[in-house]
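pls ignore typos typing on phone
adenosine-5'-diphosphate + seq
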Amino acid sequence: MITAEWDKIKGRLRDEVGDAAYRSWLRPITLHQAADGEVRLGLPTRFMRDWVATHYGERIRALWGAENPAIRVVDIVVVNGRGADISASVPAAAKPDAAQRPRLVSQAPCAPVASVDQDELGAQLDPRFTFKNFVVGKPNEFAHAAAQRVAEATAVSFNPLFLYGGVGLGKTHLMHAIAHHIREHNPARRVLYLSAEKFMYRFIRALRSQDTMSFKEQFRSVDVLMVDDVQFIAGKDATQEEFFHTFNALVDQGRQIVISADKSPSDLEGMEDRLRSRLNSGLVADLHATTYELRLGILHSKAEQMGAPVPQKVMEFLAHKIASNVRELEGALNRVIAHSQLVGRAITLESTQDVLHDLLKASDRRITIEEIQKRVAEHFNIKLAEMSSARRSRQVARPRQVAMYLAKQLTSRSLPEIGRKFGGRDHTTVMHAVKKVEELRSSDQGFSEDVELLRRMLQG
Ligand code: ADP
Ligand code: MG
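k done
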């Protein structure tokens, strides 16, 4: 019903403001319904939120009031990519003061509100984190397949599914996608998603109010339990103990468990051995660092979702330069799009460099190719001279390729320029090196970590 109302309002607004402004500002709005006559409209950036609130806020509210007088509050918020469980760890009692209503603009950033059946015990799901919106590439195909399998399975196939990987690589996205899928296709199954922090918070609260019995029961009655970022409970003895018991009880009853962490079970510090081995006993799937191809694919998909015309060159540039994680990549794209919409000019490579000036400068931070060569040579224990030598044995060729790859990522030098610094090599050699390293990174975890470490050291 709310959706239908919103569609009507959007139609009106479109007539009022014209096509161009509609496309830029109003179409990107996502609708989230909160309870009790409250509607939440989400925009991807603070800037867009402010713009829409100032220019169209009153009008939207008036139209909504006319459409449905029960709607007393229209919130316009930033729905950023930080995952949905942030606000969910706030106690449910911390509801905004009713006396302040009606209000229009809330404080950003705010996690999105799910429209699907909310579970007080769990956390809200980000409506954008679906399988459909997840771009699959080499670094994440295994984790994606495993997640999909769990989502589609009617019986438990591997327990637990343990997803791990660095920050911003899609762990939370996949978990929410599993939950969305099950809720849609198999609503009778009880799915509970929450962060490990929230699990801990609930547990401590139950301890305090001496109500651990009902705490236990609540958790033990679910069909699929998903706990995100379990590294948070590592080293917290009581919580870990309770988690372990909950875990065992659910596994014994043949319920599905999905866990995520930033490290593999074996590398999690402060984990008790029996919990670690339990975590290891199911299927462990990791999300590797992104490759250039995956980043490009993600940019394509996001730009299309936002309906923004982003030139291929710009996407290639971003995919090259913003290699840290998907969250930052998304943030950069959002900024570029928002800027072009504000100034009303098409996105170009120049405008992109301009808008992301600070970000790019930080990643460039005048790291020189010489510095990279030196560090990499030290790391692999070869002579610096080998960086420009003609020798092709694997032992020196691989480090050289890594250095070229890092030069491409961390400096703004062009391929021919990089080639010249490596003993006058051709730009196609550099291109090949970049590709090779990316391939290796997605297939060889140890290698990938090595490269990542070097990158971090260089960026200081
Ligand atoms: P993590 O939980 O691993 O830190 P998230 O799942 O929160 O990372 O992902 C960070 C952001 O990047 C989210 O907005 C998510 O939608 C996006 N993202 C990550 N991987 C992909 C992907 N393969 N395709 C599309 N979006 C992705
Ligand atoms: Mg996460």
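The chain has a mean pLDDT of 83. DSSP finds 20 helices and eight strands in the chain. more later
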